[in-house]
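[job 0412] stage=fold_complex status=start
inputs:
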Amino acid sequence: MTIDIPKETYSGRVIEITLGATAEEGGTRSRSITVGGETALPYLHFEGEIPHPPALGLEIRDRKPDDWSPLLYQAWGEAMQDPADWARAAEAAGADFIYLVLSLTDEEGQTTTPERAVAVVKKVLEATGLPLAVIGPGQADLDNELLVPVAEATKGERLLLGICEDKNYRTIVATAMANGHLVESRTPMDVNLAKQLVILIHDMGMPMDRILMDPTTGALGYGIEYGYSVMERLRLAALQGDAMTQLPMIVTPGEEAWKVKEAKVGEGVPETWGDWERRALTWEALTASTLVHSGADVLVLRHPETLKRVRAMVDNLMQPVETL
Amino acid sequence: MPLSGLQIYKLLPQTNCKECGFPTCLAFAMKLAAKQADLKDCPYVSDEAKAKLEAASAPPIRLVEIHGGDGRLAVGNETVLFRHEKTFYHPPGLFLHLQDSEDLQALGAKVAEADAYEADYVGIPLRLDGFAVEAASGDAGAFAAAVSAVRERSQKPLILLAPQAALARAGLEAAQGTRPLLYAADGENWEAMAEVAKSADVPLAVRADSLEALADLTQKLAQTGVEDLVLDPQVSGYLDSLHRLTAIRRLALKKNFRPLGYPMITFPGQAQGADELLLAAEHIAKYAGFIVLDHFDQAELYALLVLRQNIYTDPQKPIQVQPGLYEINNPDKDAPLMVTTNFSITYFSVANEVEGSGWPAWLMVADAEGMSVLTAWAAGKFDAERIAKGVKAFNVDDKVKHHKLIIPGHVAVLSGELEEELPGWEIMVGPREAVDIGSYLKAMWSAS
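[job 0412] stage=fold_complex status=done
writing structure:
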């Protein structure tokens, strides 16, 4: 018996977006990475194109963070003392790009200054040839104050700047536009809100191929199903031709997973949660791998071991083999 | 997929003989569509039409049920490819793989540990579903002894991995009084396995490495009268698993393709070069009905069970947290008191931030019918009256000395009404977002 596998063909295509610029492209990166371009649901190669594997990045900070899980301090060790060392360690761990998050304050508790932010970003750019994302501390005024000089000092590098949210996106978008960078557009787990912010950013004149859509990530056990379904719906809408959803999606399973109790702490938790380290790594890996299946194009992780595990999986998903 | 009255009418003789008791074939067809008449009442319907009508009334993916001493598990009967289209109904069973070649005492200890496993997730107990016992020794006596040993320590449903009629019979005998899944029929043994499954009235798994071979086998088996089948498409990694399980689900749902309209079984630990855990997670999201794990590890099982709970949550009915007064970081009578709603994600965001901040605190979860703060407020499910009711119902007065209540910044408008509802209380307006709770407490509670 021959079986006719039902195949879906779509009219829409996700836009291809390139992060980072090499010398030829006007920057200083040793390579750039391109994501997007899909014409089918995640990894269903038999009915469309999936031209690029998802990009796997590692999150670093401008200084050693105060509140990360001890397991992450163990994993990165001394490298966390210096953002350049940390970036080099992340590159050595196999990251496709570095996701640098600026802290609210420096080691002495003083609010991070624009000078300091620019210096750190330059240092990281020198330490690694990978494409870079630079993310503000998450307070609107300070984000704008720090990201504008960073964007100007790195003109042409095609950095990813963020995070743009509905309450604060104009300044970041304007400086990204003026200096040849990309932006991360984050909305809280809702298809229409995701579209709306993309429209607002695009209306300012930002080309679509410089916007990454962040549908907001929920960790395993803490709302992953909302993000999962919103992503599936966004991707289906994109493939069906809704232009304002045709953007690669970025998710932050590292941050979300390591925030929750299951990953963060080893004491005062139920015995049935099992071994702490295994549970923590499992939490990040499962959050990430599940979002790979719902269409994540860019994933930001925290633990080098998770990167290896997820890499092995996406390598397999991208294999050009007959399966049916 | 059910047929409409008109579609049924086309399959009837269209002679209006009235022998069915209805004035016309069309009237009869309409009653059939409404399930108010029985096809048997038409003496002239052709066999072909009968088969079509019967097939159309069955679900596109058969519901297959197994049970142990007391636990039962039903999988299949799914209706959508994406959970947002409706919901996924029957969560896949997670089974632990055991071999009869193992020392019976060691086997028994393993079973006892896995059987007792129970974790709590937002008030929902999470457990392993059963055991898959393999006749690895090839010896019927040893297999029966292993099955008995498992049954002595667990009432959970079983899968018998015994692809030879003699072994299968021995296992089934030892499993008497339960309804295990028998694994598996293939191109060589299917006739003998069908006979065993049929006489014991148990579901039978079918394995083949191509969809064509699988469909050929299920058709042959259906002809022998074995109706409860389970498919093993013998996947070897993330990609072929995704493709085959997706293709089978689509064929069943979109084409109503009967030969593959059954739940699926997978063995993520047997795939070469894949991480058992990540592949099992893929199988939870993408369409498995039974998942047999090679390893029992509490941390990993807990994560898989939580993922299954999340993926199989009805998108229309979000998980709710039990309303009540929750303790975070061992609060005393002077610790701050906050209130939020019982939407699980809202609760977790707030609870996590408070916990992460290191502040001991009381978190009162009001019954807002599972909605988030703003939604509940807009719907009138999170108002002064409900909050005040909670303060009384949860005996907050006995737990805290002060009379200060921190409400979410988004519902600052409630403070006036709340002060009326709760005379003598000071209502403090907290931050709008959970992430700012730590800095809020530092600034406001320390000062107050």
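[job 0412] summary: Chain A touches chain B through 58 residues (CB under 8 Å).
[job 0412] exit 0
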